[in-house]
Amino acid sequence: MRGIDSIPRKSLTIEQQNLFLNYLQNTDKYKHWYPTFAVMLGTGLRVGELTGLRWEDIDFKNNLIKVNHTLVFYERSKSSKTGFGIDTPKTKAGFRTIPMIKTVREALQKQQTYLQKEQIRSVDNIDGFRDFIFLNRFGHVQNQGPLNKALKRIIRDCNFAELDKNPSINNDCLLPNFSCHVLRHTFTTRLVESGMNVKVIQNVLGHSDIQTTLNIYADVTRDMKNQQFNQLEDFISKDA
């Protein structure tokens, strides 16, 4: 089906991003996932950084998120350890603060309200870290596997809903298959599109090597240039 088995983009378009977030906010079945994915889209946090966030890492007074550790899940088949552990960032660049934009602040407040309403409390003590923010219904921390599975269900149902409303909808107006990492790349794309300084982008993303940031920057700006020239061609041919 269109939009469900299509090749994923490097990042979501603004229209797809809005479709995704609006669907989460307005669909009772998935509403509880909104804070998780809205924070990812508004901060560019890596999955382990997001799932390892604690309430003490959030500075609501100054609108800052402190990143100083990551939550790691050790799979039995790939490690001598099993279960969860806490790692510190591998480089100094990983230690950083991320400004909270309005949508991120509101998403975190929604998460607070949801946990209180459902009486869900963080029950894990992982290497001395506790009081985590993003929990399953039993109060345990999340990991990448369940998050990506949730995304697949959300994408499928969102696209079905859009196709029900308009069977002839353009494929670009549906959600492509994407993973949590695409949300980080989408955030980066929005920063580049906004004209943000590349050094600021590097700092916010926690890249130790500026070349990593520059490679993404080059990819996005190339796509932007192609898109704008396509618009120019459409504009010229319209009046031909």
Overview of this structure, please?
This protein is mainly α. 49% of the residues lie in helices and 8% in strands. The chain has eight helices and five strands; from the N terminus they run αααβββββααααα. The chain has helices at 14-26, 34-43, 47-51, 102-118, 144-165, 180-193, 198-205, 210-238, and strands at 58-59, 64-67, 70-74, 83-87, 96-99. Strands 1-2-5 form a three-stranded antiparallel beta sheet, with no helix packed on it. A two-stranded antiparallel ribbon has the order 3-4. A hairpin with an 8-residue loop joins β3 (70-74) and β4 (83-87). α2 (34-43) packs across α6 and α7 crosses α8. The longest helix has 29 residues, at 210-238.
Please sum up the structure shown:
The protein is mainly α and 240 residues long. The chain contains 8 helices and 5 strands. Helix 6 packs across helix 8 and helix 7 (198-205) crosses helix 8.
Helix content: 40-55%
Query: How many angstroms separate the termini?
Result: 36 Å
For the report, how would you describe the main beta sheet? 3 strands, antiparallel
Q: Give me the number of helical elements.
A: 8
Strand order of the largest sheet: 1-2-5
Please state the CA-atom Rg, rounded to the nearest Å: 19 Å
Strand content: 5-15%
Number of strands: 5
Order of helices and strands: HHHEEEEEHHHHH
Point out poorly predicted stretches: 1-8
Return the average pLDDT rounded to an integer: 90
* Overall 3D form: globular
Structural class: mainly alpha
